[in-house]
Amino acid sequence: MVARQSSSRKRRKSHPRVVVIGGGTGLSTLLRGVKTYTPDITAVVTVADDGGSSGRLRKEMGILPPGDIRNCIVALAEEESLMSSLFQYRFQQGEGLKGHSIGNLLIAALTDISGDFLTAIRQASKILKIKGRVYPSTTEKVVLLAELDNNTIVEGQSRIMRSEHPIKRVFLRPREVSPVPEAVQALMEADQIIIGPGSLFTSIIPNLLIPDIAEAIGASRAQKIYVCNVMTQPGETNGYRAEDHLSKLLEHCPGLTLDIVMVNNSPIPRRLREAYALEGAVAVDFDSSRLEEMGVEVILKDVVNFSNFVRHDPLKLARVLKKLTEPERSAPCPSLGK
Fold first, then answer.
1. What is the pLDDT of residues 236-269, one digit of tens each?
2. What angle do CA 120, 159, 67 make, to 5 degrees?
3. DSSP category for residue 33
4. What is the DSSP secondary-structure string of 146-174?
5. Among 103, 141, 177, 244, who pairs with 70 as Cys (CB 3.0-4.6 Å)?
6. Cα torsion through 137, 139, 141, 142, rounded to 10
7. Are strands 143-148 and 153-155 parallel, antiparallel or unpaired?
8. Cβ 158 vs Cβ 55: under 8 Å
9. Is the pTM of this model over 0.85?
10. The predicted structure's pLDDT at residue 295
11. How far apart are CA 141 and CA 312, in angstroms?
C-alpha cells in the first residue's frame, strides 16, 4: 500500500526530480532529452519483453529481459562514447552469439555474478557513468497477455505486437505483482512524471498494471504528463487518435489522473507518410476539445524529427518539458498552440 505524500513536502530542489515510465525506443529517446535539463532522473522500465536477444536470455538464463534496460542506461550515459557503442554492438554472426548485443550479455553476466538483477543494473550504470537511475518496474517474471476483439487470448509481448485483431485489453500473469520499492519512492518524490512515448499496450500499460506503481502515480503530487505517439502502430493502435490512446490508458488504470497530454502538431512530410502507409501506419490525429473533455490540458507542439523515420526529437521534447517544470506552470492553463 502506498502512503499519500505529506503536505509538508520539502521545497523543490534546484533540479526537478523527473520520473519517466515506459519502454522501447520511445523511452530511450525521451531520456536523451530529459538529461539535458536535470540530472535527477529515474527511468521505470517494463520487463514484459520476450522477443529477440532479451527473449532468448530470458528463456535460457531465467533472467529478466535486459534490452530496454540497456537502452535506457546508454541513453543516460554521461557521454555516449565508445563504451556506449560497445554496449549497443550486436553480433551479426556466430552460433549462439548472432543477434545478441554486448550490453545484454554484460547485464546477464553481472546478474549471474551478483545473483541479483538490480545489482547488475547498478554496476552497468556505473560503467557508463549515467545521469540518474534505471529500475525495472518489477523484478518478478511477468508474462503479458492480451484479449483481442474476437475474444481470443494472446500470450507474450512479441505475439501481441503481431496481432491481426484489435486489442481489447492487456493484463499480466501473475496479476498481483510487487514493484521495485525504489521506483515507487521515486514516483512519490517526483516533481514531474512522464508516461510515454512508446508502444501503448506492450511498453507503457504493462508498467501501470502493477497496482503499487499506478497507486504511487495517483498519490504523487508531481505534474503528470502523457506524451502521445506520433504515428499509429500496426498490430497495436491501428486507426487510433490521441483520444483513443488516452482512453485506453485510463481504461486500464482506473483512478489514474493526468494533468497534461502532449501531442505533435507538425505535419508529416509526404514521402514519410507514404512510406509508413505501406506498413499500415498513419500520423496520430487529435481533437483538442475531446481531449480537454477528458480532463487534461492539451499541449500541441512540433516535437518530432524527420529523417528516414518519424521519431520524437529528444531536444524538442526537452525544451517543452523543461518549461513545464518552471514555477509559473504550477497551475493548469488553457491549451497551448505551436
1. 999 999 999 999 999 999 889 999 999 999 999 9
2. 20
3. H
4. EEETTS-EEESHHHHTT-SS-EEEEEEES
5. 103
6. -20
7. antiparallel
8. yes
9. yes
10. 96
11. 30
d(CA 70, CA 65): 10
Residue 8 pLDDT exceeds 50: no
Closest CA to 135 of 27, 51, 15, 256: 27
C-alpha distance from residue 156 to each of 61, 247, 248 (Å): 18, 23, 19
Identify which of 66, 68, 44, 71 has the alpha carbon closest to the alpha carbon of residue 56. 66
And the C-alpha cell for 155?
Answer: 500470450
d(C-alpha 120, C-alpha 101), whole Å: 16
d(CA 170, CA 148): 9
Q: Domains in the chain and their CATH numbers? A: 18-46+137-328 (3.40.50.10680), 50-132 (no CATH)
Range of weakest confidence among 163-167, 201-205, 238-242: 163-167
The answer to whether residues 23 and 203 touch, using CB atoms and an 8 Å cutoff, is yes
For residue 322, how many other CB atoms are within 10 A of its CB?
Answer: 17
Helices (H) and strands (E) in the chain, counts: 14, 12
Grid cell locating 325: 517544470
